[in-house]
Amino acid sequence: MKKYLFNSFLLLLFLFILISHQSNAQRKKGEKKEDKKEEVKNNTNVVSDTIKKLRRPLNKEELSDANVFRKFDDAKVKPDSVFVFDLPSFCCPFFPKELGNMVNMQILRMNGVDLKEVDSTMIGRFDHLQILSMNNNFLKDLPKQMGELKNLEELELRKNKFSIIPKIIGSLPKLKVLDLSLNLDLAKTGTIPAEIGNLKTLEILKLEGLMLNKLPTSFVNLSNLKYLNFRLNKLKIIPTEVLKLNNLEVLIMRKNGITNISNELSNLKNLKHLDLSANILTTFPESILKLSNLEILNLSETKIANLPVEQFSNFKKMKELHLKGNNMKAEDINKLRNLLPNTTQIFF
User: Which residues of the chain have pLDDT under 50?
Assistant: First the structure.
């Protein structure tokens, strides 16, 4: 009987040790699982911190060093590291869904891809976009979500199908460069919206070939404008609004039908490049003589018969003088060569 009881005790002791061992094993396994979860959580936090760190506008130097992606297969590997994407021509007439994951995009070029509309559900995600180029497409309008691109500095929309300039462009507070040239359907209206005057940071504006015949009064608010291209429009005079932009350095007015130049042109003291070619001026505008900082003056094909040659000595910084198509006298050209700096190139 004693032996039976002793054997039973040993059996119970063995079962207790076995159960305790299994419990300890399960507890340790659970601890490992929790540790692993914590590790995964920590790793997730690291990734989130990395993404958060990347979610900022890069400076010019960083952008110049960034990889330029041209294929989705390459970009999909690390979508958070895609800062510059240049889609190949004719690749897709829409915003590919893969773009939606590339929320750190800083430069996006979709030139000549047959794009018909800007994806309103996607464009607002690129809130760190600095440069957007969509030239040579079929765009007719821009969605209101474009206004969310608060870091956009350059917007290129050359050669599209706009019949009116979208007002939403006036909601881009950091825009420095805007190109709307050669949207030939704009010839139907010949105007630009007053909202363009909201672009207080704008420095470069290209409105070539739009058949514009007037400007809104708000245009005078573009006080930081340095480069203005009005080539191939229908402005019979240099608009008063333009003549008040004192920071202008380049003014292109080629082929507008201008017959007279206001004396107020002399207000543009910082002007370095003035192109009045292919207009019908007939007489030389005296106000040009007061633009002492001029480096390039283009008066080709303006029908000007006589120049006040002696007064060209005012142009101490002149580098190029274009006089083709004006039947200039050889003796006047020789005088100009003596009066202008030795480095000046004269085209006649």
Answer: 2, 32-33, 35-53
